[in-house]
Design goal:
The protein is globular and about 35 Å long. It has one domain (about 10-85). The protein has four helices and no strands. Helix 1 (about 15-25) packs antiparallel against helix 3 (about 55-70). The chain is mostly helical.
Amino acid sequence: MESIKVGKAFEDDATTINMVAQALDLAKISLMDATNQFRPMSDVLAELGAKWDTIDPKIQKVIAGAVAGKMNARTYSNIWEYSLLY
């Protein structure tokens, strides 16, 4: 995988699974398990939710943009921030 820079904006139609994996890797979250198979997305999201409030805001933006797309990144971030209240 190519490395990405924090803050790099992704085009919605050009986002690849590698970009999502790289963004999550910035928070030390892997899409792949030890056998190089995709982990269940529910596990990935649970791990992300548990770490969200400890992740640097710049990295949060990169993850939100990669996972939800540039147009939905703010909504995605709000969901995580709101979920931390409960």
